[in-house]
Design brief:
Blueprint lengths: L2 H13 L5 H12 L6 H12 L7 H9 L2 H10 L32 H7 L4 H8 L4 H4 L8 E7 L5 E7 L1 H15 L17 H5 L7 E8 L1 H4 L2 H10 L4 H11 L21 H12 L10 H8 L1 H13 L2 E6 L2 E6 L1 H20 L3 E2 L5 E4 L5 E2 L2 E2 L8 H17 L12 H15 L1 H12 L3
Antiparallel strand pairs: 1-2, 3-5, 3-6, 3-7, 4-5, 8-9
Helix pairs in contact: 1-2, 1-4, 2-3, 7-13, 12-13, 16-17, 18-20, 19-20
Length: about 450
């Protein structure tokens, strides 16, 4: 029998059993119909090779067997006697990594089970996962799963908002509620997390001698679809199920989504900027606008948080992250090595597939305003004084001249806008919030 079909059957046997050498040996023996002596050592080497990473793909398991010296020797000795007795066609069990064994997520072991769980037909499941990039190639907006809107950042770069249509959003919300939300996050992650905010992000850095702030460039589109699929395999889902879940939660933006981007700029748009943005968003990535993207971004950044937390601890520093904002702080020991530390942190981020926005990197000592996510963190977490005074002046003018006299940006619900700004100050500094609330209540 040819070599590759045997390797494929052995790979299937390895993926159809938990990561245990004895069970894999029994499964492979059943598939080949004979207890070959080289099966147990091969199974042990396979378990050792993939013990610490996510569940491998079928082609990865085949490549491992194909390049295994023990299997190659066995094949040279007795290839004419090796054959397939039983083809394994049943569903593959969940195989989470050890750290994910206690995650309370639904066990979905086949494509049919996933379609039933999402209340879809298999054809509908393929359509929403869009492996063939049909929506990317389609010129009709009606056949696409997302609405697109281009925004211009303050830095001059472009951001694409990708809002899923109602049916896809419903599927993503179910994945978020039943699979992603029960999974614990790293303690350093404060963004998109219940009970956390920019206040909890900045609080660990108050009263520190030096604060280092770093910013990641293109955070969501840098998390590619393959990384999302690998996360679902880490959770234990079989390859086919993980790929479909990753396809539902990722998107590749078509080139015409950027039409009209030039009209946003007051000066002519650099063609290289638009070309780079199109290339970045054209590959499958986490869409900014999907309900699953914030949770998946935090989960896919877990390894980064672990590495940066360890680096910070070794330098006598504290580390927190709010989405793409990273903060480190410490005392005299950290102050002596902060420049070198920033270079090491940037190298780690580059190894993990992220790029640092170096123009936004700041080393802030106690003599300056230490700002994190728009808050001041020198002695206590607070709203910048200039922002507080500006809002106080706006409310005072509203009392004297009327609400609409201050509505310079034509907010349709300007009072609600002011309510939100006052509520934000209350959440950061309750004492200042009380004073602003008293002024707001006097506004007619």
């Amino acid at each position: 029998m040819p070599r590759d079909p045997i390797i494929s059957v052995l790979a299937r046997a390895m993926l159809s059993c938990p990561a245990d050498a004895q069970e894999i040996t029994q499964c492979a023996t059943r598939a080949l119909g004979r207890p070959w002596g080289w099966l147990r050592p091969l199974a042990e080497r396979y378990v050792q090779a993939f013990a610490s990473g996510p569940r491998p793909r079928h082609r990865q398991a085949m490549d491992f067997i194909r390049h295994d010296r023990g299997f190659s020797r066995a094949w040279r000795r007795c290839s004419h006697r090796i054959s397939v007795a039983h083809y394994l066609t049943g569903p593959q069990p969940m195989q989470p990594v050890p750290a994910a064994a206690r995650w309370e997520i639904p066990a979905i072991q086949s494509v049919g089970a996933l379609a039933a769980w999402l209340e879809l037909t298999p054809a509908e499941l393929d359509w929403f996962a869009d492996f063939k990039s049909l929506t990317y190639k389609s010129a009709s907006p009606q056949l696409r799963h997302y609405h697109y809107r281009v925004l211009l950042k303050r830095s001059g770069s472009l951001r694409l908002i990708e809002a899923p249509k109602p049916r896809l959003k419903q599927l993503q919300r179910r994945i978020l509620a039943e699979i992603l939300d029960p999974i614990p996050l790293h303690p350093a992650a404060h963004g998109f997390r219940r009970g956390h905010s920019i206040r909890t992000f900045a609080a660990p850095h108050t009263g520190q001698r030096v604060v280092l702030r770093m910013d990641l460039r293109d955070f969501f589109p840098s998390i590619i679809g393959a990384r999302v699929q690998a996360f679902f395999r880490t959770a234990g889902y079989p390859e086919a199920v993980a790929d479909l879940l990753g396809g539902i939660c990722s998107n590749a933006a078509p080139p015409d989504a950027w039409n009209g981007a030039a009209a946003l700029c007051a000066v002519p748009l650099d063609p290289r900027l638009l070309r780079d943005a199109r290339a970045l968003y054209s590959r499958p990535h986490l869409p900014q606008g999907a309900p699953t993207s914030p949770a998946l971004a935090n989960l896919c950044a877990y390894r980064i948080d672990c590495r940066l937390s360890g680096l910070a601890q070794s330098a006598g520093a504290v580390y927190t992250r709010y989405a793409d904002d990273l903060a480190f702080s410490g005392g005299e020991e950290f102050d002596r090595s902060v420049e070198r530390f920033a270079a090491h942190a940037a190298a780690i981020l580059g190894e993990e597939g992220f790029a640092v926005h170096h123009r936004k990197t700041r080393i802030m000592r106690q003599g300056v305003s230490q700002r994190l996510a728009g808050l001041v963190a020198n002695q206590r977490v607070n709203v910048p004084r200039a922002d507080y005074d500006r809002l106080k002046a706006t409310l005072t003018n509203c009392i004297r001249d009327g609400l609409e006299s201050q509505n310079r940006h034509a907010h349709p619900l300007f009072r609600s806008h002011l309510e939100g700004r006052v509520g934000f100050v209350e959440s950061i500094n309750p004492a200042r919030g009380v004073r602003l609330r008293a002024l707001l209540e006097r506004v007619r």
